[in-house]
């Protein structure tokens, strides 16, 4: 799942308790009036609350950085340097697995672009930093029959896909940093996908698997009517300004 998607209203999960709702509202109001030092704490709280909030109520509250939190799974496990692994497999000659340390040791690329959600909100000038996806694909040795790449996530629910040419773009990252700090759990950390020219639902959070395939497999939100090719301003019936 990603934090930036509208809530799947057909999803059923554990009801949100009255104390949690009141706590979120109180801290949301605090976030409006408080200074910058409180932003990270508020963001962390809302991210944790979103993990337990299948209603999407947390998306109505203000939070640090202009992002909104939504969830398509009732909860998401936390991963760190001790247990995180990213697998690369499928139609490749050299399947492999990367630890967080492995990914940090590879050349890093930094991009600063607007983030555009298909629901309409936008966060300008957002820095992302990580390993170009094309570098991991080259290291794996993509086979001639390959046509696409499928991404899976350790929330156990979300998936996404790109065509192979899309995946090889220079502005598609396996991101380790966001807003000049490590990607937080709430934002899909420790590692997430970042597809700069597409709507943010394409930038899968909690990335755990990269599988090279012979065809595009529609991702989570595509099964609910979103475009498979989610170009900002050229898809989903929207005319937003491009993010590139």
Order of helices and strands: HHEEHEEHEEHEEEE
Arrangement of strands in the largest sheet: 2-1-10-5-6
CATH superfamily of the largest domain: Oxidoreductase, molybdopterin-binding domain
Amount of beta strand: 15-25%
Which features does this protein show?
244 residues, alpha+beta, Sulfite Oxidase, Chain A, domain 2, 5-stranded mixed beta sheet, 10 strands, 19% helix, disordered N terminus
Helices and strands, with pairings:
Blueprint: H1 18-33, H2 39-51, E1 85-90, E2 96-99, H3 100-104, E3 109-116, E4 122-132, H4 133-140, E5 148-153, E6 159-163, H5 164-167, E7 172-178, E8 181-182, E9 192-195, E10 207-213
Parallel strand pairs: 1-10
Antiparallel strand pairs: 1-2, 3-4, 4-7, 5-6, 5-10, 7-8, 7-9
Helix pairs in contact: 1-2
Protein name: Oxidoreductase molybdopterin-binding domain-containing protein
InterPro entries: OxRdtase_Mopterin-bd_dom, OxRdtase_Mopterin-bd_sf
Domain Oxidoreductase molybdopterin-binding: 75-221
Write a structural description.
It comes from Streptomyces sulfonofaciens. InterPro entries: OxRdtase_Mopterin-bd_dom (IPR000572), OxRdtase_Mopterin-bd_sf (IPR036374). This is Oxidoreductase molybdopterin-binding domain-containing protein. It is a single chain. It contains five helices and ten strands. Helix 1 (18-33) runs antiparallel to helix 2 (39-51). It has two domains: 1-75, no CATH class; 85-224, Alpha-Beta Complex (Sulfite Oxidase, Chain A, domain 2). 19% of the residues lie in helices and 25% in strands. The model is unreliable at 1-39 and 49-64 (pLDDT under 50). A five-stranded mixed beta sheet has the order 2-1-10-5-6. The chain is of the alpha+beta class and 244 residues long. It has helices at residues 18-33, 39-51, 100-104, 133-140, 164-167; strands at residues 85-90, 96-99, 109-116, 122-132, 148-153, 159-163, 172-178, 181-182, 192-195, 207-213. The chain starts with 17 loop residues before the first helix and ends in a 31-residue tail after the last strand.
């Amino acid at each position: 799942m990603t934090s930036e998607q509208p809530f799947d209203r057909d999803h059923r999960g554990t009801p949100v308790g009255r104390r949690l709702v009141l706590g979120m509202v109180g801290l949301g109001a605090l976030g409006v009036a408080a200074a910058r030092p409180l932003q990270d704490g508020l963001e962390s709280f809302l991210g944790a609350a979103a993990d337990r909030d299948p209603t999407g109520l947390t998306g109505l509250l203000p939070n640090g950085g202009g992002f909104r939190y939504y969830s398509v799974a009732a909860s998401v496990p936390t991963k760190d340097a001790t247990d995180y692994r990213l697998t690369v497999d499928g139609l490749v000659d050299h399947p492999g697995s990367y630890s967080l340390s492995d990914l940090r040791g590879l050349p890093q690329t930094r991009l600063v672009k607007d983030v555009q959600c298909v629901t309409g909100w936008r966060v300008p000038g957002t820095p992302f930093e990580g390993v170009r996806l094309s570098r991991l694909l080259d290291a794996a040795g993509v086979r001639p029959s390959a046509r696409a790449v499928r991404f899976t996530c350790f929330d156990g629910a979300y998936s996404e896909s790109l065509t192979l040419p899309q995946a090889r773009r220079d502005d598609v990252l396996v991101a380790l940093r966001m807003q000049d700090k490590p990607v937080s759990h709430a934002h899909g950390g420790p590692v997430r996908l970042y597809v700069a020219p597409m709507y943010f639902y394409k930038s899968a959070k909690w990335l755990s698997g990269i599988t090279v395939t012979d065809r595009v497999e529609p991702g989570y939100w595509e099964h609910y009517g979103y475009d498979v090719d989610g170009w900002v301003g050229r898809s989903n019936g929207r005319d937003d300004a491009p993010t590139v």
